[in-house]
Specification:
261 residues; globular; eight-stranded mixed beta sheet; alpha/beta; 26% strand
């Protein structure tokens, strides 16, 4: 029986998880007693996928806990990182100088991010929002790349857009040109997908096995970010016993969740 379960699981997530390594958390409760305990394993240099659209549906408490850890030089992937008053869930990480690279669709009027970018303290990779969402979703399901028509004829296709400056104001990193192919008379660009070391997501209700029920607009980037993190930590407003989240109500399966707090 166990061999059949392992086989099915491996087929589902071969590219992102090791079945033997996470089998103990599948068998037992995934509930962690504190936020600090939940994030303490995140190491410097990690890529962290952050759910939510700005602050909407974002794991704000987990982000605050991560900002208190020694981890630094992080690559953060998030939907948007615009005005800190209204839309930047990752502001604490940025202000604590924890972020070395930011992959997002917008920084808007976030002056802290803009200043760090100009001073050479932060690299920024801006992507069309739909492309970003698909890079995350595809990465989480083991797809190495896909073709999209978004960005044809722009810096996104041609490359050369500054992503990092030195402290002296010299461009040190730019986006690279993308491969272009013709399909049925239309041009498409090849996009490589994203797969992070960790994912932080927010859920309204989760059971102790990690099955998550999201509320309303929180069903934005959270499900995709959850699948695209090798280790996913869910911040839940309410934790219940197994079976108290109905099968038809599960938006993120517990198979993708490693810790619930």
């Amino acid at each position: 029986m166990l061999s059949r379960v392992a086989s099915k699981f491996t087929l589902l997530k071969t590219s992102t998880r090791n079945f033997a390594a996470i089998w103990p958390t599948i068998k037992g409760s995934k509930v962690i007693n504190s936020l600090d305990e939940a994030v303490k394993g995140i190491k410097s240099g990690s890529m962290v996928m952050v759910g939510g659209y700005g602050k909407l549906g974002a794991p704000l408490s987990l982000i605050s806990a991560l900002a208190r850890t020694p981890a630094k030089d992080l690559t953060i992937v998030c939907g948007i990182a615009s005005c800190p008053e209204r839309g930047s869930a990752i502001q604490e990480l940025v202000e604590a100088r924890k972020v070395a690279r930011l992959i997002t669709s917008s920084v808007g009027e976030n002056q802290v991010i803009i200043d760090q970018f100009k001073k050479g303290e932060l690299a920024i990779e801006l992507l069309p929002m739909g492309t970003l969402a698909e890079k995350v979703r595809s990465g989480g399901f083991g797809i190495p790349g896909f073709y999209s028509s978004v960005g044809i004829g722009s810096f996104h296709e041609e490359g050369g857009l500054p992503m990092k400056y030195s402290k002296e104001g010299v461009i040190t990193d730019v986006n690279l040109p993308l491969e272009k192919r013709d399909f049925r008379g239309r041009e498409f660009l090849f996009e490589r997908t994203l797969l992070g070391d960790y994912a932080l997501v927010k859920t309204w209700k989760a059971d102790s096995k990690g099955n998550c029920l999201l509320k309303m607009a929180a069903r934005n980037f959270n499900p995709d970010m959850a699948t695209a993190g090798k280790v996913c930590i869910a911040e839940a407003e309410e934790i219940v016993e197994p079976g108290q989240v109905g099968g038809d109500d599960i938006h993120i399966s517990g198979i993708f969740i490693h810790k619930v707090v």
